[in-house]
Amino acid sequence: MRVALxxxxxxxxxxxxxxxxxxxxxxxxGCDVDxxxxxxxxxxxxxxxxxxxxxxxxxRHFTEVFAGYDAVVAPSGSCAAMVREQYPKLxxxxxKGAAAIAELTPRVYELSExxxxxxxxxxVGAYFPxxxxxxPTCHSLRGLRLGDRPTRLLQNVxxxxxxxxxxxxxxxxxxGTFAVKNPxxxxxMGTDKARNILDTGAEVLCAAxxxxxxxxxxTLSRQKSGVRTMHLAEILAATEEAQ
Length: 243
What we know:
alpha/beta; Rossmann fold; (Fe-S)-binding protein; Cys_rich_dom; oxidoreductase activity
């Protein structure tokens, strides 16, 4: 299977280790992974802020860059949801762009979707001997409706103790531009989320979006909690040999 990694802006700029983990994991599972260097932002920030035409341009570029792959995998529920949910709304009905989007979007997956729905596995051979709690980010929970896919994968990681997170379905307060426009509310929501995480006694907080982990992690760091944040891909890519 020829798979393209859609790295996303946040991961490419701030968390390149997540992209490397995705490549390592998928290759371990037998996929031929490519990284199209011409990829850019998916346009989520532009569309959400009212710059629709810029979003249309970026959507057109995305379909051109990722055409021809068997699957496009993103370590981000947020950006995968943007492509699948918003791109069809941006295209002019009946246009070539609409046809290209309709052809591509069914092959765009968030990482846990791809592993479970396409590769048909919930045990990727990972080893991570730590106490972990999982935060289901808003786009992955309400947009893509990932359900228990991420936790099924975590439950099959050898050595990992998965502990439930109180108020798991509550937003962490990041929300992209929401955190910029409403900083006080965002910080308060982040504090609530951090308190629930500390109550679990977990060593590591896991999520499928580094943007949310960045927000929550900032709060945990300022509190000197000692709790690490790790993307799902990094835990799933971990092996006993690498410990």
